[in-house]
Specification:
Blueprint (H helix, E strand, L loop, with lengths): L2 H13 L9 E5 L11 E7 L17 E7 L2 E7 L10 H13 L4 E10 L9 E9 L27 H13 L6 E6 L8 H9 L4 E3 L3 H9 L3 E11 L10 H10 L1 H15 L1
GO biological process, one term: nucleoside metabolic process
Family: Belongs to the PNP/MTAP phosphorylase family.
Pathway: Purine metabolism; purine nucleoside salvage
C-alpha cells in the first residue's frame, strides 16, 4: 500500500471522530512540552494506537495522541508526542502524521522541540525561533517513490521555515516581553547526546541548536506546501559548553520550568497566524 493510500485511511478514520472540525493549524509538541494540551478547549482525543497506520510513541514526555479542539476560538489539532528515527521507526513512519495533516487540510504546522543550545548567547529555558535547519540525519524522508498527490519530485527548500510566520511570532514575543532569538537547528539521529567534538563541529557549521527531530517533519511539510513555524526550547547547553553531564530528565525538568511561558506564547500565536 502506498503512503498516500495509508494516509487516506488514517484521515478517513480521524474525520469520523472529530465532529466536522476543520482545523488549519497543527502543532507538534516536543519533549516535556505536552502540557500545552491543557490549553485546548472542547477536546477530542485520539490515541495514536487507535489510528490506522500510526505507531505508538516510546519516549518519556511524549503522550502519544492527537488532540483536536480550539485555542482562543481557533480550531487546531495538536500532536502530543512525536516519532523519532532513533526509536526504530522508519523515516516514513516518522513523517506519516504530517502527511495525514496535509489530507486534513492543514495549512500551518508549528513544530516545537527541546534542543541543545550551541550558541553562547542562549541559556537553558530560552525559546528560540528556527529560521533554518541543517539535515545531518544521513537520510531524507523524500527518498523513494514520489507521490505527486503530496508534492513534486524535486522540491525547493530555500524557504522551509515561512518568513511571514517568523515575523508574526517575533511580534507576539515582543508583546509578551519574551526575548526574541532566532537560530539554525541541526538535526542528528540520536539517541545519544553529542560529544564535545561534535558540538564544536556543529558550531563551525554555524548551527545554533541541535536535536533529533523536526528536520524530517519540516522537509515533508515544505514538500507538501504547508507553512512551517519552528520553536525550540533550549533544554541544555551542548557538551563541552555545559560542564555537567546531560540527561533526558534535565530536558524534561527545564521544559516543565518554562511550560507556562511556552503555553502562553503558543496560545497567543495561534489567533495571529491565519
Amino acid at each position: 500500500m502506498t503512503n498516500y493510500k495509508s494516509a487516506l485511511e488514517a484521515t478517513q478514520f480521524i474525520k469520523s471522530k472529530i465532529n466536522n472540525l476543520n482545523p488549519q493549524i497543527a502543532i507538534v509538541l516536543g519533549s516535556g512540552l505536552g502540557n500545552f494540551g491543557d490549553e485546548i478547549q472542547d477536546k477530542i482525543e485520539i490515541p495514536y494506537g487507535d489510528i490506522p497506520h500510526f505507531k505508538k510513541t516510546q519516549v518519556i514526555g511524549h503522550a502519544g495522541k492527537l488532540i483536536f479542539g480550539k485555542v482562543e476560538g481557533v480550531e487546531i489539532v495538536c500532536m502530543q508526542g512525536r516519532y523519532h528515527f532513533y526509536e526504530g521507526h522508519t523515516i516514513q513512519e516518522c513523517v506519516f502524521p504530517i502527511k495525514v495533516f496535509k489530507l486534513l487540510n492543514i495549512k500551518i504546522l508549528i513544530l516545537t522541540n527541546a534542543a541543545g543550545g550551541l550558541n553562547d548567547s542562549y541559556e537553558s529555558g530560552d525559546l528560540i525561533l528556527i529560521r533554518d535547519h541543517i539535515n545531518m540525519l544521513g537520510i531524507n524522508p523524500l527518498i523513494g517513490l514520489n507521490e505527486e498527490e503530496f508534492g513534486p519530485r524535486f522540491p525547493d527548500m530555500s524557504i522551509t521555515y515561512t518568513p511571514q510566520l517568523l515575523e508574526k511570532a517575533k511580534k507576539v514575543m515582543k508583546d509578551l516581553n519574551i526575548s526574541i532569538k532566532t537560530g539554525t537547528y541541526a538535526g542528528l539521529r540520536g539517541p545519544n547526546y553529542e560529544t564535545p567534538a561534535e558540538v564544536q563541529m556543529l558550531r563551525t557549521f554555524r548551527a545554533d541548536l541541535v536535536g533529533a527531530s523536526t528536520v524530517y517533519e519540516a522537509i515533508v511539510a515544505s514538500h507538501m506546501n504547508i507553512q512551517v513555524l519552528g520553536i525550540s526550547c533550549v533544554s541544555n547547553m551542548g557538551a563541552g559548553i555545559s560542564k555537567t553531564p546531560l540527561s533526558h530528565q534535565e530536558i524534561i525538568d527545564v521544559s516543565n520550568s518554562i511550560k507556562s511561558k511556552f503555553s502562553n506564547l503558543v496560545k497567543n500565536l495561534i489567533p495571529n497566524l491565519l
